[in-house]
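Researcher: First entry.
Model:
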Amino acid sequence: MAVALACGPGEQKPQKAEANPNMPDRVHAPAPAPRRPEITDCPEALREPEQVDRVIGSACKAVTVHPGYRIENGSLTIEAGVTLQFMPGAELAVGFERPAALHVRGTPESPVRFTAAGEQAKPGAWKGIALYDHADGSEIAGLVLEYAGTDLRGAIYVQATDVKIDRSTVRDSQNVAVHVTSKGHLSSFKGNRLERVSSPALLLPARSAGSVTPDNTFPPDSVIHVLGGMIRERARWDVPKVPFVIGGVIEIEGPDDKHEALLELAPGTVLKFDDDAYFTVGYDHPAALIAEAAGKEPIVLTSATRQTAHAWRGVNLYRSATASFSNVVFEYGGQRSDRGVVYANNEARLSVKGCTFHDNGGGVTLQGANVRLGEFRDNTFERSHPAFDVSPQLYGMIPPENKLDAETTVQVEGGEIGKDAVWHDFGVPIEVKRPVSVDGEATLTIRAGAKLRVHDGFSLGVGEYGGGSLRVEGTADKPVQIFGVTDRRGTWDAIRLYEKARGNVFEHVQLRNAGGEGAINVAIGVDAVVRDVSCVRCFSPTLTWACGSRVTSERVAGGAETPAATLPPFGCDPA
């Protein structure tokens, strides 16, 4: 079909034919020939390719369009009230080889009408409008388009850029109402009505989805299919009640380090992701994803295919990303085992407030200690394993105003705590995967009720290089528990208070499976208060200390398979 459109009588076929009508190849046009004068007569029919500036005025009667008509190196302007009736196999093709433009200027009182000729009033009776690569800047307003489309294309097919479709009606099409390829771009799509068209009603690249305004009318149960691609400018997706189906990877990325790309999701927006679809934000250049619906209808990010965990990947935030989520539902994501449905690394900025995470392969993964975490409160995690996968520093920045169900876990990676941190109890075990150190004059506080389930080889070191403090603040009814993943003696190392550790407190602590020379080991010159601490199935005594340390101990016990409660140093006063 593309070859027939591109070749008039006596012309040679172009070397690059359109192999795939959904994604035709761009034909590099020669320099445009001089335009002809404007033609304003009223034709009865349009049959052959034209290279003119034609205006069909409101005084004209119906015009019949035959197969083979197209516009190259010119323009077609259709004024209010005009009807074009298309024969079977005909289409309005614009700008396939040379620059051309279509201007439809209907009004609500006197629309332009594109319809099927004769008795062919059924979907697919004619091919529709095709705005090819060289039809940039075409505008359609006040059009009623009916009975168009093919199995491969929508009623309006767009490869051109800066195309506007406003205040128009598309009805009874064989396929989608509007199909914009990855090369094309809609700059405006507002006030339109789509009736009895297929679902999806629109097929658009990501950078065109923001042109669809909330004043468009869609059929019931319709969706907008968004192709993968780049968003490099500022866009707002705001089509309540009509879900966006995300068909590929969408990259939100500014054009350079001085300009930020932005995608804003309006309250009530629903995004449904195919299995291989996800968002990436700010990988190289500044970019932001804002989804804020506090006090309004929630924003939903979900799967388009399956209502099970791991169905789609999620939202990935990189070095130059900023993201803010409030009243967002994340469900069925977390496809990768090492990432939650929300993943942030490096220096990404993230705020999560009042959101719901359910049935995900993971909730929020914050990789490294440099993620800039803003507000993170009033969130609910259900059946999302783990709810948090974070560094020990960032875990210490998560406040207690978050709710985790009993089927959800928490994972803390190893690493350094260099700023004050508080580890709260969320009612589930805190799985600590590697050694943790506290330095830089920081204080780590572990609140009552916390249950640390530590991997083999774990240790907690305090004040080895730059000073630090450890406060383990259990209570009689909510002791802090630290125990091994493997329930054997000595599977993890010890809590080690080095020479620069200061102000250390252990109250109501239950230890299990520790090793080393003592479950709690206090170095020379270090102060520690140890009260109501026990160790069960530990390789060495519960508490040991060096000469010159300042240890106050009360009710320290060694449980089953632990050799002793305490081991004072030899040859010095343990006090």
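Researcher: Second entry.
Model:
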Amino acid sequence: MRIKVISLLFTVSFHIAFAQKRPNIVIFISDDQSQMDVGCYGNSQVKTPHMDQLAKEGIKFNAAFAASPMCVPSRSTMLTGLYPFSNGAQMNHFALRPGTKTLPEYLKKLGYYVAIAGKIDVYPKPPFDKHIGEYFGKYLPEENRDDPRNETVHFISDYFRDAPDKPLCLIVATWLPHVPWKEGGEWDPDKLTLPGYLVDTPETRKAMAAYYHSISRADKMLGKMVNAVNDAGEEANTIFMFFSDQGVQFPGAKWTTYNEGLRVPFIVKWPGKIAQGTQTDAMISLTDLTPTLIDLAGGEVVEGLDGRSIREVILGKQDKHREYIFAESSMEPQYWYNYVPSRTIVENTGYHYIRNYNPGVPFVTHIDDVERNMYYFDSWEKRAEKDSLARFLLDRYRFRPPEELYDLNSDRWELHSLAGDDTYLATRKRLKKILADVLDKQGETEDQIRHGTLPDFYDRSYEVRQGISVNDMSFEKKLWEPEEKLYITAYIRGMDHDGVIAEYFNRFKIFVKSGTLGIAFDEEEIFYSAKVDAQEGQLVLALEKTGDFELKYAGEILIKDRVGGDYTGICSGYVSCGLSREKNPGQGMPLYFGGEINNFRVSLDALSRTPD
């Protein structure tokens, strides 16, 4: 018996020792930084000594791409291993599909402590063990973006000092160098060389100098993270990664599927495992991050992900990974924007194909309509009045043809589309076929792309399709809040299925449970109907600002009551049809309604309105 106990203790000790030898993982993510804007990638003007040193000590990826050129869709692909359509967060500020697994869930099962510092920008918030430095994860004040309290450094020191029995995965996500940029004295704007896709004006030069200043701040912050790990004595057992989420917010980069919006720096250091000062041309996607980390943590391959582990490339055992990159832009949800989606394929031959689905709609983003940071865009418009190159670059930003094709080997700034050149007809057809296959595989139709995750707006009413959630930022609240009464109508089939019929901006939800209809306000006041016999019928909710409401189904008034407060207005959240955005919608319901919902419409002050 004693021998068995000793043997058991040895086995347990062995497993603990093995667990402790698993590598720590520290990831530093900069925000809106193109690959070209790092010193080790050939930019002699920007100052990035810590990023450059990381490349000297590890491996530099020359062909790393975001799956979307916007913060939330890009970060959602990183943390799920799924393309934006698959995970649901296609538009900026939109949420993941209910039930979508994220990186912390995978790594925690493998014994890791998973923490994030600063910015998250994935909704709903993934289940990290800890959120460090929430104050510098906020958009403003801008002065907080480099964690001036050094909360992340203190966390690293404390975590390793306390000698935990769990390996650490820490993501440090700063807002730097995201706009707004502030002028810095380190660069003389007049001496800068601007990339060819920008209009060369004094204002653009000042903006570039300010952007470089912001990059320098991000670089110093990265240096602090590296030093904290080294000072803790964990350098040898830590995989350190640096990359950005997408390209810089200049016209023709962020928000677009052009090369400068998608191509990002990506550097990995792993002492004793990665040969120092190496580089690779293997094409990788940020969608590969989650499966890679699972692999590095000792986990099994997760079926159904769009990303694939790059472990063998990191270790220098492979020099190829993907034959092409797929990426997309579905734009912002804000009501003042025009919806101009695009999908793209970047092939390892250097050819880049872009499909624009609403080519007749002018392209509008934060750059020219909202933030106007550094106010350089006005100088573009003024210069374009007399300068043909400026006019070309301005039009290139604002107006998109149905198809674009570029050869990145000879046209780095993508200024000469080959889509109309018959010489490249076979190339265009080949890439178009690859794109069609990718879209078909993920189940995204052309109609879905053209429509997007947006409602159909009519005269004081709007419709939302089943399975869709629309962010509150899609609505101009002054126009889409009722004066007296809110109506929700839909034709329901399948009352034998449980689930959420509708959620309205975290104010209330209508649901089916065990053959009864219910409505829950703030989860505090819940009303149920008697059991419903009709398997299909018209549903009508009339809710007044006074709190009086009436719920009808199949011609009968099922609930007539009053709730305390006004629940008719839009607030932060989503209006959803046939699903719940919550991980646990309550009342023992599934995330999705199993029946059929037709013509789900929200109307203001009048029961029905004819589409205009």
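Model: Note on the second entry: Confidence is low (pLDDT under 50) at residues 1-20.
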